[in-house]
Specification:
Order of helices and strands: HEHHEEHHHHEEEEEEEEHEH
Largest sheet: 5 strands, antiparallel
Radius of gyration: 22 Å
Number of helices: 9
Number of strands: 12
Strand order of the largest sheet: 7-6-5-4-8
Distance between the termini: 49 Å
Strand content: 25-35%
Structural class: alpha+beta
Helix content: 25-40%
Length: 315
């Protein structure tokens, strides 16, 4: 069974996958794509089905991206409409350069491929100061540590890391199962199962003093890594169950763990703001049920007060 990943991670993967494959006219072997982007064949097929829904107005067949598998090779061709030169304002060009530079750092992307060539051409059009005027910094993580973590994640190998302890600031050795590498708020993070904590944890890559992959393998646990860094083990937690019709909410909140049922999804959150929790519960309405909650949250009272405030505002 394919592991579930946040929509933001899947989008980042697609934005790196499409130009890399499209830049190779003869296509890329399926196994090579799967290995590079850490996906299985079923997940890759779903990604290609999504890509085929991308196009420009009026969304006729000649304006859509073509993506298919032929003779066990992945093929992606842009529609002719994508080859037409864009007319951008200066602000639009600068914004595009900044976004493209951030995307170029996504693991699995080709730093010497079509995206980088496009950045070079666009920077030349914007002006000679574009390279110095735009500074995209996604953290000061050691390339050696980053590459070791990324390789271990792809090969599903446990990693021993040396990391400063939150309590005393002293470096301690932990063994982790890296499941995701992502950039947030200007820093790179690795999330995964921590054997010392016996739970999911997120670590800043630039604070990892050393990383040594072991020969011990792991399988992805039925527990999603948090898709954001706004998580602290000291925060009170709540466990909720929602109908599948509103399961999209899991892509928008920092989930610690999840358990998928036939008709419902049960998940746990760390709550840094009780007011935020109240708004979330009101938003989900009858589609959500509280399974377990830290007593300090007093979720029932908070929800009632938030609902009262909303009614008063509409009056």
């Amino acid at each position: 069974m394919s592991r579930r990943i946040p929509a933001t991670e899947r989008l980042a993967r697609l934005l790196a996958l499409v130009p890399w494959v499209a830049g190779q006219p003869d296509g890329v072997p399926v196994d090579q794509v799967c290995e590079r982007f850490d996906v299985d064949r079923d997940e890759l097929v779903r990604d290609l089905e999504t890509v085929m829904m991308v196009g420009v107005h009026p969304y006729t067949p000649d304006t859509m991206i073509e993506a298919w598998i032929d003779d066990d090779r992945v093929m992606i061709h842009y529609a002719d409409a994508f080859s037409r030169p864009l007319r951008l304002t200066a602000d639009e060009a600068v914004t595009m350069i900044a976004a493209a530079r951030g995307l170029a750092a996504v693991p699995g992307g080709d730093r010497n491929g079509p995206l980088q060539r496009a950045i070079t051409k666009l920077s030349a059009v914007v002006g000679p100061d574009a390279d110095t005027a735009i500074d995209v910094d996604l953290g000061d993580a050691s390339r050696e540590v980053f590459e070791r973590l990324d390789t271990a994640r792809a090969d599903q190998l446990q990693v021993e890391i040396t990391y400063p302890d939150a309590a005393d600031g002293q470096p301690h050795t932990r063994r982790i199962e890296p499941s995701q590498l992502f950039s947030s708020s200007g820093n790179w993070y690795v999330s995964g199962w921590c054997h010392r904590a016996d739970d999911n944890r997120v670590f800043r890559v630039d604070r990892i003093i050393a990383a040594h992959p072991t020969e011990e393998t792991f399988t992805h646990r039925d527990q999603s890594a948090p898709n954001s860094v706004f998580f602290d083990a000291s925060f009170p937690q709540i466990e909720l169950e929602v109908d599948r019709s509103v399961a999209w909410i899991l892509d928008q909140v920092p989930v610690i763990s999840r358990e998928d049922g036939d008709a419902t999804v049960r998940f746990r959150l760390a709550i840094g703001s009780p007011r935020w929790l109240a708004r979330l519960l009101v938003r989900l309405g009858p589609s959500v049920r509280i399974v377990d909650a830290d007593p300090s949250l007093d979720a029932g009272r908070l929800t009632g007060e938030e609902a009262t405030r909303i009614r008063a505002r509409y009056r």
